[in-house]
Amino acid sequence: MRRKRKTEDSNMKNILFASSECVPFIKTGGLADVVGSLPKDFDKEKYDVRVVIPKYMCMKQEWKEKLEYITNFYMDIAGQSQYVGIFRLVHDGVTFYFIDNEYYFSGFAPYDGDPKWNIEKFAFFSKAVLSILPVIGFRPELIHCHDWQTGLIPVYLDNFRYLGEYYRGIKTVMTIHNLKFQGVWDTKAVQKITGLPDYYFAPDKMEAYKDANLLKGGIVYADKVTTVSRSYAEEIKTSFYGEGLEGLMNARANDLWGIVNGLDYNDWNPDTDYRLAKNFNISNFRRNKPANKMALQEELGLDQDSHVMLIGIVSRLTDQKGFDLIDYMMDEMCQDAVQIAVLGTGDPKYENMFRHFAWKYSGKVSANIFYSDDLSHRFYAGCDAFLMPSLFEPCGLSQLMSLRYGTLPIVRETGGLKDTVEPYNEFEKTGTGFSFTNYNAHEMLNTVRYAERIYYDKKRDWNKIVERAMSQDFSWQNSARQYEELYKSLIGE
Ligand code: ADP
Ligand code: GLC
């Protein structure tokens, strides 16, 4: 008997996002922001977009308590039969599914453990995502996969076609949020974990440089590939940014879209943000924004002075973000009339570097080596400028948050930073921030000092830049329409 197609009685398209993190449940970086906010902005008349993530034990208790248990079954992975529990929660109008398995998801953080363990963990997740579909009563026309952790989904889907009609015709999109992370391990081991036939472990499929590469599998097997800015979509076709997969990116160039990220403009709104000392908007920031700086200075133990220029950094502390340039120039920058505040965790060498400078320039530099969502909002609101001199940046959300809160980004012209921050042009009176081209510490310092000059000597111009920054629209409005176009090209209207 022919299965009754859903589209015969409705034009609604079912889309399933699969990701390893998602706000407000679990977050280590911008991926979570994107997966947690984008689904809300699709046309609800046309798309039913749902999200599936792992049910991590390290998720906050308040969320775990809200989840509704659906069902469970057993599935083969890594030579064992493993429990797959399914939970569900409708939050902010979006349905979220959580895949439960305490053996894999009981760590203190989503990616703790060695690389092999992470590969096994997300191989389990990827196979489980496909396996739960028949039992949750939601057959997606398209699965939208995010980053290497879900790279096996398009591969398994190819393999599952042989199981019967159910899986045939489901389309996939693979979004690359960061090409640096690919999920690479020894081929034999990955073969054993995934249980996939030899066929998939060839250089034109999952194999890369003799190892198995999960992201590569996703890129090869997905119907379309996207990344999170136009510039990064171009950059990853070159050897400097291509992380060894530039050949593949070129091969798939016709199917590769660059769609810039947006922000949840309700969560990130300086006019209503309850975490701030004083709310502000584009018409009253001159009067109200300084109160946030004073409050932040007090909170961080910096000298309280509403006139001094406060430069903020909120970031994972990794090489990607340009911290070696900052390390090189920190003493120089601290000779100027500026304060520098950091909120971040990551590579111990950078954590210790900032601790050191906070000790050396006490009252002027503040190092906050921890993760705090609430404090990050106060950073974006209270600082005057935001420093992000990344070596590479697929999109970057921090500079978008800064723009929204009238904190001017100082960035290197790469990836999404180049696409979202327009450099100040003092002759044409245009621009929303400051930027430099080369990955060079002196270029960065010159640009910071240029920003200082505008801040101190041309305050009216500075405030005009703030006005332009705050009037930019980086909500999901535009980008969600582009994703809809992309889906349309695969599954029609
Ligand atoms: P990436 O995803 O490469 O880390 P993005 O700029 O896209 O970079 O996103 C980073 C996100 O993580 C932003 O929402 C930023 O505010 C947040 N973030 C990074 N470090 C911290 C921290 N220590 N505390 C709170 N938020 C943080
Ligand atoms: C990655 C990138 C960052 C991007 C984020 C969300 O973590 O490093 O540039 O904004 O994903 O797409």
TrEMBL record:
Q: In which pathway does it act?
A: Glycan biosynthesis; glycogen biosynthesis
Provide the GO biological process annotations. Answer: glycogen biosynthetic process
SUPFAM superfamilies from the UniProt entry: UDP-Glycosyltransferase/glycogen phosphorylase (SSF53756)
Its Enzyme Commission number(s) read 2.4.1.21
**Reaction catalysis annotation:** [(1->4)-alpha-D-glucosyl](n) + ADP-alpha-D-glucose = [(1->4)-alpha-D-glucosyl](n+1) + ADP + H(+)
Q: Which family does it belong to?
A: Belongs to the glycosyltransferase 1 family. Bacterial/plant glycogen synthase subfamily.
Gene Ontology molecular function, alphabetical: alpha-1,4-glucan glucosyltransferase (ADP-glucose donor) activity; alpha-1,4-glucan glucosyltransferase (UDP-glucose donor) activity
Q: Name one Pfam family in it.
A: Glyco_transf_5
Task: Tell me the function of this protein.
Answer: Synthesizes alpha-1,4-glucan chains using ADP-glucose.
Q: Which PANTHER family match?
A: ALPHA AMYLASE DOMAIN-CONTAINING PROTEIN, GRANULE-BOUND STARCH SYNTHASE 1, CHLOROPLASTIC/AMYLOPLASTIC
Species assigned in the record:
[Ruminococcus] lactaris ATCC 29176
> Could you say which residues bind ADP-alpha-D-glucose here?
K27
Q: Which UniProt keywords apply?
A: Glycogen biosynthesis, Glycosyltransferase, Transferase
Query: Which positions fall inside the Glycosyl transferase family domain?
Result: 310-462
Going by the record, the broad EC class of this enzyme is transferase
Which stretches make up the Starch synthase catalytic domain? 14-250
Would you tell me the protein name for this molecule?
Glycogen synthase
